[in-house]
Amino acid sequence: MRFLIDNALSPVVAEGLRQSGHDATHVRDHGLAAAEDALIFEYAFREHRVIVSADTDFGTLLALREARLPSVILFRGATPKKPDLQTQLLLANLDEIATMLERGTIVVIEPQRMRVRMLPISGPRDSTSGDGT
Fold it and tell me: What pTM value is reported for the model?
């Protein structure tokens, strides 16, 4: 799997993923450390990389664009701040979410739970659709 680690996380996370056999880079590796989120989003899309971040703006970009890709993994809540622990948490859950990441999803990882939402993210469902939702 190919990952792009956002500036909200340490390059150590990319290194840990590489050591586990994944193709992982940090935005700094591409001169994108100070780039706007939209530019990082576009780069990840072009390079077929999953964005890994703690920045919720990527979820907003996905919703606004109604995009299916790139997939995004967000560390939220009281997730560990140490990069090696973040890497361990991600690797511990990766088998469960790998197929969904390839199809397009946003995954929110918190210490005690993980939330997954398939893409695209769209607005509220029409209550008159008759599908019971």
Answer: 0.89
